[in-house]
Amino acid sequence: MAIGQGRAKYPRFKSYHHRQSIQYPQNVKQVGNSLKFPGKLGVVKAVIHRPLEGEIKTVTVSFDPSGKYYASILVEYESTEVKVSKEGNVIGIDLGIKDFAITYDGEKTSKFGNPKHLAKYEKKLAKKQRIAARKKKGSNGRKKARKIVAKVYERIGNVRQDYLHKLSRKIVDQNQVVVVENLNVKGMVRNHKLAKAISDLGWGTFVNFLSYKCEKEGKILVEINRWFPSSKTCSNCHYRIKELPLDVRSWTCPNCGTHHDRDGNAAKNIRAEGIRMLSSSGTGEVNASGEEVRPKRGRPSKLRHSSVKLEAPTWP
Fold first, then answer.
1. Which among 64, 105, 223, 263 is annotated as catalytic?
2. Which residues lie closer than 8 Å to 271 by C-beta, 6 or more apart?
3. What is the pLDDT of residues 189-210, one digit of tens each?
4. Is there a catalytic annotation at residue 247?
5. Predicted TM-score (pTM) of this structure
């Protein structure tokens, strides 16, 4: 295809310094605590963290910059159908920067702090990067220094995922319906003042974890529209104020006089909007402790369920 016609671009090659991978579409078998690959690779010892139930279809072996090899295994098996139910607790979640998540379950508001994973390792990371930058380009010393930097990044990623897994597991175990905002994270990180903090939080990964955990257990994840004015709407009388700058963390409703914590009020409105969406989607009423379904506010939202597979890989 001609480049001058604007329909194609020059090829972009992968860097040898980043993640490398190879895919085996067939003939991979498990032999005890090892994986048997076709060809010269043969039998490779592996740390298999869970039983491989079903037929192995595809295995992707990847090499991380930290020097570790991982095998991601896709298996096919017959799963028992999980019945989806709406009977149970409904929780609304407002994601933020000062506090990672603010939740409301109909009775109480809970706050989960921002762990700031990157900030804890920032000094160590800067030190290792300075050492790597002083090494001669192309030398073995530079390769070793780059690997040390990659291990620090790997540690940050592992700590972040551990926190997100534990929090999402706690929320899914305690509730039947989870309501979150469909945030435009890609657009939000364009703000150079908040990009670093937003990227470190991992909002998108957290919602993905909630999604597949809910689907696996027959629970429901509701994502409301990102333009829904959850912070600016009074959760008591539904009065909406025109402006609410980010630095204003609490406000008083001019209509009913109720004093609101910004994030706690948003979590209440998010939960109410999720209940409204479920009750108006033709799937029946939600058992929400006898609460009245509040009227729709803001732009229309969407009831979306996504199947996300984010299981930990095997490490050979």
1. 263
2. 90, 91, 92, 104, 105, 106, 179
3. 888 888 888 889 999 999 999 9
4. no
5. 0.79
